[in-house]
Amino acid sequence: LAKATGLSSLKLFAAPLPAHLGIFEAVNGLELRLYQEENDAKAVRVTPTCTGVTFQPSFVVFNSTVSVGSGITAQAKTSGNMTIDYVATLEGNSSESSILFSQSVTVLPLPIAYSVESKSWNGVVLQHDSFENTTSPMSSFWSKQQHGYPSNACGSYDGSNSLFFTSLGDRLALTSPLQLEGFHGKMHFYHLYGFETIQKYDAQGDNRVACEMTDMNEEVRFGYLPVGADPHNVSSWQEILEIPLPATRSSIFSSYSVILPQLSMHQASQFFWMQKNHSSFPIDAATGLTRGEVILAENDPSGVKGQLGDHEKELWNYRNMFDQWALDNVQLEVRLNVPALSLLPSGRLNSTTGVGVGGIDVLVASPVPGSWVEFTPGDGTQGFPVCNASAASGSSNKATVSLSKSGYVHAVACLLVNSLMISSYPVRSTRFLVQAIEPTITSVLDTSKSVDTWTLNINCTNCAFMRYIVVPLEGNTEDSSFVPSCTFGTEINSTTGDTKVTFNAKIRAVACGTDLLPSKLVESQDLVVHPRVPTFKYDIPATTITGFMNLTIVPPSATDQLFGIVYSIVRSDKDLPTCSSSLTSGEINLVVKVYDVVRAVTCCVGVVCGDSIIASWGPVTVQAVKPTFTTACSGIKPLTLIVELAAVTDDATVRYQILTTDTQTSLTCSSGTLYTKPVEVSSGAVKVVAMSCLDGLKMSDYTEIVVVLDKCCSGRTAYTHESCAHVLLMEDDFTKCPGDGGAGNVQTNTNWHSVTSQWGGNNVNGGVHSDNVRCVTDSKLGKRVLELTANGDLFSGVAPVGKTLTSGGSLSDRTIDDRFMEWALDGISPLPCNSLQYCPARRVGAAVKSVSQQNSGVMVIRMKPCATFGTLTQVWWGNYEDVDTEEKIPFLPLWKSALYQVKTSSDIPFTLTSPQPIDESYTEIVMQWDASTARTNLYMDGQLVLKQIGTNQTEANSSLSIGVWFPNAAAGEPFFPTCHTYVDKVQVFDLQITGGRWCDFEEVIADTISCSEDTDCQEWVQLKCFMDIYEAVCANDRLSDTDDGNSSSSTVGFCQFRLQPITQTSVSSTAMTSRELDMQWKEEEDPMGLTT
Q: Which residues pair with 703 in a beta bridge?
């Protein structure tokens, strides 16, 4: 890997050539990889350059879509040390270039060896004959010399004789069969055609010594016998050379070195020299023989095929012999062929590609029996072997060479023949290719860490190093960037190494080594990784209000891996979380229901891994909070406790049980009574047990409420119960009377004081007098009642005398001259009578005041008020005397509508004006008051008729008063003699009996008391009002006494309350009480300027 200075973003991975190459050797399948930064991809041309090595194709252009160039062939052209530079240039800008990678290689020269055609070729003379021996039989070189004789007839090349051919028959020489398979060589010989033009005869007349000139078509042919050819069948012999006739006759032998065809070199090689024809003929022949028969006999020296026998020699005498020729100095020079090197089939040989895996076995063989081979394996730099005679013994002509790496075998074939060492030229084999044994991958899964961790051991045998790539299981994994090579991928510079995988992937690995082809790519099994399950962090509360709790989902912790979480809150096995959903990194803080089921899986972030096992949480056992309660005595019923229960846990229901004995409760969420409204607990109950229930929660602990009723004293009848007797503060039926009407009897009633006083203005009335207080018998009731008397303007009596309030605040009797000068009724005389009548006893009423004093309470009075104009029967709290006389007099509406125009507003609280009499029966008047809040409710015959709320609150206690008196004109003119108010019975109760019910419907926001029918509103009155009211109805239109007719209509029913009818009722007569004219009072001028 090299980086260019000007092209620094380029990364080139080049498959290196072998360090040593044989000259002319081609290396195929080279690969170049060029990876660029994605955001800076360029068109880059990479050209391998070397003076002695060529590449095809000569360059590769890489760009954003091409990152691998494969199928490149390099071929060595010249030997020597070479440097290959991989030069990168930008397409279109050749000025910018850089050498990305360089490699040094050595190209090996050919071994020293020559072909047989070369002049430099040399061998060993295996056979030779110079024909000098004329006495012994022909040498073993020859199997046949027909009509050839050692002779000097034609001379000799370098000795005395040559092999001279003459005679009538076929003239030929045939070598003995030789085992020449596995050899190559030459046949050296000297040849001479006859050159004499005349016959020559010896002393016996034999002309075989002649060397007569050979004619055309009588040439000699040199050749061989093919494999299997019949030595007797000349027609099957193969010519190698026809020796040409010389242009001019000459006695000089011609030299020939004939390369022997490979077909001639076999296990029984024979070579021949044979004359095609000659013109010799016999002079005479035996009787009966033809010339052909004579020639046939000549060609058969054994005489088997002829008839001449011993007489043959005679036939040679005086023959005509022509066309002679001679051979001399014949030599067979041979050299063993180089050994054959072939691949031996084995389990590690790929017979298709010829590549051995992990090694290769090479057979080095010479076909020559008795020969042997010498060899040296290596990378081509090893020496060539030489033949050593000492190795001849026991050696074989075949040897097996095992190579563990790609390389060459140098070999030579050797043969020892009669002390002659025959060898081949040394040979270098082609490169035998050995591929590295594919690595083995073993894997072990460790599930103890935050994510499954595969530890993979990559191991190779007889390799130098390995490279691998971790390939994700998803996406295009066939891209070249996911295919390792011996130059690309993570290197393990050893024969074994470990790597770890923590995401879904597989390993691709290749084994490599010097002079080894990359191994077959191996791939591990799919390595599926699962992270550990997420954990849940939480604190389980003992109880819960909301039903919620905090839950934190925590992914496994890891320093080199980021995890996310996918979760679902489910109540079934549907919608289980998977990592295909959107996930959240890091911890997840949730607020969940305690009865929720949360399922979560851990997911890998940034890499792909399998989902973890689903982790489940919940539900947890948590109790609902026990209900709270409030107790209050019923405001309606005595000895009744109102228990209000409230579930503290949201959405929980409350169940309760009322126990009459102090026993263990059996209350459960499926038993008891479901709480829907406040519970009334009455006499006989000792305990109320309640509990909260909510699906998914454990039922709460019990809330136990002890029932205490003796303080529950609300209601009119509460005092009748022994424990509530205290609420009756006073009860008086006037069996004993608080006054005697002035008779002088001693007062025996201790509940009341009869009152003598004056208020309402000094010159308005004569006040009240204790003498107007007495008790009388009511015949209808059959009992005594309290009688309060009011003496009007027609009263004829003289006592009791009215009172006037002096400037010093004391009371004094009125005199006959005292006028009611402050009387405010128009047209009415301020004088109660004329000057002839005694008037101080007129306009004098009566009142009683309670001995006990309270700040609040309920007073119940059965009374029959005075119904005559001019008086006012009232019940009040406090003292009228304390009110400034100029204050306006408080009153309730009168039953005389004619007096409405003189009504005034009351500034004095807690007064009750005479109600309109219906008949002569007694009326029950109830006053509910509370001075501390300055309010009072007034009831008549069980119905609320007036509500008053003042501003002068006080915590003081004061007395209750009952009285009939003469207000300033407000009640009309008191034109009557005497009027009585009767009181049958008075009860004063503690305010407790009202249960706090003031009937405050005005304070309720409009439309908030919803209803569907009138009874809904009547129930509200029962709960909120001490006594009934005039009207409580469910309405959709809001109307009031001052309705302007524009009231809107609502679709929602709401309660509407009224204390009186909408339309005011007028009485039958609105006239003032009339007087006779003689009864009219007149005013006379006072001598002192005063009115009388």
A: 690
Given a contact cutoff of 8 angstroms between Cβ atoms, the answer to whether 466 and 439 are in contact is yes
Q: Are 988 and 859 in contact (CB under 8 A)?
A: yes
d(CA 164, CA 357): 64
Q: How far is CA 384 from CA 25, 147, 425, 429, 943, in A?
A: 19, 49, 10, 11, 141
Measured CA to CA in angstroms, residue 599 lies from 258, 556, 558 at distances of: 97, 15, 22
Q: Residue 656 has which token pair?
A: 């309760």
Rounded Cα–Cα distance for residues 1028 and 942 (Å): 6
For the chain, what percent of residues have pLDDT higher than 70?
85
Q: Please report which confidence band the pLDDT of residue 1050 belongs to, taking 50, 70 and 90 as the band edges.
A: low
Q: Which two tokens stand for residue 433?
A: 């290719």
Which amino acid, residue 824? A
Question: Nearest CA to 579 among 612, 536, 534?
Answer: 612
H helices of 262-379, in order, are: 291-298, 312-316
Instruction: Say yes or no: do domains 11-108 and 437-523 share a fold.
Output: yes
- Cβ neighbors of 36 (< 8 A, separation 6 or more) are 9, 10, 11, 42, 44, 62, 64, 67
The answer on pLDDT for 1049 being more than 70 is: no
Please, which pLDDT band fits residue 1 given cuts at 50, 70 and 90? very low
CATH 3.40.350.10, applies to 124-281+319-335? no
β-pairing verdict for 752-754 and 773-778: unpaired
d(CA 823, CA 743): 32
Range from 111-115, 198-202, 794-798 carrying the lowest mean pLDDT = 198-202
Domain-by-domain residue ranges, the chain? 11-108, 124-281+319-335, 339-434, 437-523, 535-617, 623-712, 726-994, 1001-1058
Contacts of 347 (CB under 8 A, 6+ apart): none
Measured distance CA(703)–CA(628) in Å, rounded: 7
Q: Report the distance separating Cα 256 and Cα 191, nearest Å.
A: 8
Nearest to 244 by CA among 220, 260, 261, 224: 220
For 358: left if phi > 0, alpha if psi spans -120 to 50, otherwise beta; the answer is: left
Residue 677 main-chain phi, psi, to 5 deg: -155, 165
Topology (CATH) of 11-108: Immunoglobulin-like (2.60.40)
CATH number belonging to the domain at 437-523, selected among 1.20.950, 1.10.10, 2.60.40, 2.30.29: 2.60.40
Does residue 606 carry a pLDDT above 90? no
CB 525, CB 443: distance < 8 Å: yes
CA dist., res. 1032 & res. 1001, Å (int) = 10
The token duo for 29 is 């399948």
- At the topology level, CATH places domain 726-994 in Jelly Rolls (2.60.120)
Cis previous bond, 57, omega within 30: yes
Tokens of 571: 């109540």
Tokens of 399: 């040897």
**Burial bucket for residue 671 (CB in 10 Å: 0-12, 13-18, 19+):** exposed
Whether residue 414 contacts residue 387, with contact meaning beta carbons closer than 8 Å, is answered with yes
What Cα–Cα distance (Å) separates residue 197 from each residue in 26, 85, 204, 631?
A: 64, 76, 21, 171
Buried b (16+ CB within 10 A) or exposed e, 541-565: eebbeebebebebbbbeeeebebbb
Residue ranges of alpha helices (H) inside 98-172 are none
d(CA 866, CA 916): 10
The DSSP secondary-structure symbol of 1011 reads -
What's the distance, Cα to Cα, between the start and end of the chain in Å? 141
Rounded Cα distance, 556 and 586, in Å: 9
- Report H helices in 570-726: none
Q: What is the C-alpha to C-alpha distance for residues 208 and 42, in angstroms, rounded to an integer? A: 94
Rounded to whole angstroms, how far apart are CA atoms 600 and 579? 10
